[in-house]
Structure formats: structure tokens, C-alpha cells
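User: Sequence in, structure out. Go.
Assistant: Echoing your sequence, followed by the C-alpha cells.
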Amino acid sequence: MPSTDPLGVLADARARAPQTLELAARHLDPSLVDVLSILGFDREYVSAQGSYLYDTSGRAYLDLHTGEGFASLGHNHPDVREVLQATLAADLLDGVQIHYSVLAGMLAEALSQRLPGRLDAAFFTSTGAEAVDSAMKFARAASGRARLISCDNCFHGVTLGPLSLVGDEFFKEGFGPLLPGCERVPFGDLARLEAELSKKDVAAFIVEPIQGRMVTLPPEGYLLAAQQLCRRYGTMFVIDEIQTGLGRTGKWFALEQWGLEPDFVLVGKALSGGYMPVAAMLTSREIYQKAVGTLERCYVHQSTFGRNRLSMAAGLATMRVIERDGLLGHVSHVGSVLRDGLAELQGRYEMITEIRASGLMIGIELGAPSTRVARLNWRLIHMASEGLFPQLIVIPLHRDYGMITMAAGKNDVIKLLPPLTLSENEAHSFLMALDAVLAECHSSSSKNLAVVRDIAATTLRRRARTKLQ
């Protein structure tokens, strides 16, 4: 029987698995290794299946984050894997610069059929940030205008073009100067948006239908009115569905909730079901042709691996699984189970100040309990880091209950992006664990509070030492 690992890559990887964090610290990002150690996330995971990761001891961890929604069908979905194995076995051509694969056309068609209006032209990329960058270029080229407007607190990626749109200065520090002509308005503020668009020099308004960083929902009527303003002033309307698209909110695309018909839709993260790097920009044929459609410009915008056979096959397989398994309805149902359960916990625990949710995209905003000691600890923790307080919940969920959640950044929000396949029983397991953690955190002798307070104190001491050096 032929070896399934003829070059010994997997065998070597298994043998060197105990060196994982050592290798990462030496050759990748040592600061992230330090963070994992501080938070207790420095586990040696050896396998993953469905909603769970497994460590060397065989302990299971329920993954409620899925790599910012990347593993949308859970980990290692067997049907998508079989499609990828069959695609490899077919020995298909993959020289994307010299031919078109039928798989790319089929995936573009499948996406277009689930989008409104005339969004029948696709450009495939390897990452969501690259899809955003493509829309920025196409909007400028097709409109003949230079300015681009985004929103405060938005997130569109960290490569230089999308970073110029991002609404949090933290991500930009040290990377300037960024692209000129990129400005922001408050999310939900139509007056400010119209003030910019009325100058008639804005190529595109680029907006997430639900802001992903903190799961910020749009005010009633905002997105439809923003679309109308774009039409009035000749600005292209770009909806970034990289996190919200492909079933996350219980719809194929979140824009369906408001009846939007944008000029561009951007998709990514979930498109391969957790297997391959792939994203896409979809627009109208008219806009596409204006930007790069002439013979002499047909090669001015390319992506080397954008429409590779494995990514295209994974995208098609993922969409078919979502359709076959009725995952849109399932997401709506399990999302309501989580939302209702969280609302009940909010009624009992003052630390939960707000629940924001759409399908299986959920933000849990935290605040300090009302006791004097708790508020003093809250201030100490925030002095150390604006994103540390949610670890009061995240750390014990992981350590004590095998639940993987994530703080949403430099804020007090825990964000849930579980697999679309999350079962109702798994949702209830999470709610029970969160209930227990919240009860402990509200107690007068909370050990979890002491852990995070110690992290904060250590952080402040390190900062002080650094300033003295």
C-alpha cells in the first residue's frame, strides 16, 4: 500500500508537535506566544472535528469562535474534504493566469444567483483584505473619483489599502502614511454621510452591514437610506459581508434583511467552509468593464492564487452543504436559543450590559458589577489594557469548561462566531458554563477576578519598567 506521506512531512510534524510554541516564538510571533501563555490558551491541540478541538490528553474544547468565523461548517467537514480529495485526484490544470477553470465560473455563478440586482461579475482573491482592496481599485477606476468613505469602528483588513479604511487607530499605529483620500463618518449618522457624498467626489462608501469588531447592529433604516444617498450622489455602495455572509446571520447574506441592492458585495472567511484561503469581490458587469474590461487592461488586476482549483471546489462544496443541510434555518433557530439564553442571564447578572445578535453572530458587552471593590478592580484592569476585562470570562470558560471564546479587541465585548452547524445541545452547554462563570465572577471572593487582576498588575509593572529603561 503506497505511503500517504511519502516525504515524511506529517510524520515529522507529529514528532515535533511538542515544539510548536517554541518554533512559533523563534520564527513567527513571540508576543502572541506570550499572550497565549498568559491567558492559558497555550494548549497543544492535536485534532479538530465539527464543533470541537482536542488536546493531547483527549480533552474536548467547544469552539465558539472558529477563527473569526473561518471554520463555518465546523472543523474538517467530511464532505468538503472529500470534494477536495477528488479535485486533487483529478489532476486538473491550475495555471490560473493562462486559463479559466469551470470551477471558478460555477462558483461565481452560485454566488451571483444568491445576490440581488446585477452582481454577476466576480473577482476571486485569497483573503478578505484583498477583496476589499479590489473593490477600492474598481470603484476608483469605474467612477473616475478618488475619495473613499468608511465608518468609525469598522474593520476591513490590515493590508495597506483596507487599513486606510479601518476605523480604529490602534491598528494603524506605525504603519503610516496610509492611502490619501480615505475618510470616515460615524456608523449610523446619515447627516455626516450625506455631507461627504454631496461633494460628488466620493468613489465608494464601504460599510459592514453589521460591524464585526463588536457586533454593532445598524440603526433602523440606516443602510437603505445610505444606499439611497449613494444613488443620489453617484457614489458606489459597497457592502462588506466578509464576516456576515454565507449563512452567518441566518441569511445567505445579511443585506437580505434590509432589501439592499449594492454595487459591490465582498465575501470571504466562511467561503471555503474552513479549508482554503478564498474570498471574492462581486459587482456588476458594467462596473467591471469600466474598471478593467478593455483588451489592453485585462491583466492589470490579478491574484495569483485567487481562483485556484481547491479554493473554487471548496467554495462550491460549502455552498452546497449549507443548502442541502438547511443551515440557514438552523442558524436562525440555534441563534435564537443563544440569544434568549443570554437575555435570561443578563436579567440575573449585572455584568452583562448588552446582548447584540444576528443569527450566530453575537456580541456580549460587559460592565463592572456595582460593588465598590469590583469597580476599583475594573479601573485597574482597564489601566493595564482596554481589552483585558473580558478575559475575566474568557479564561475560566476555556480553563474550567473547555469553551473557546474570544475578546473582541480593545473593548469590553466577547464575540461568539460558532460554527453554523452548532447543535442546540452545544448551545445549552455553553449557556450553562457561562452561567457558572458569571456566578463565580459576581461573588465577593472571585478567584477569576484575582487571576485577571494579577495579569493587570503584572502588565502595569512591565510597562513601568519599560519606561525606566
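User: And one key feature?
Assistant: The mean pLDDT is 93.
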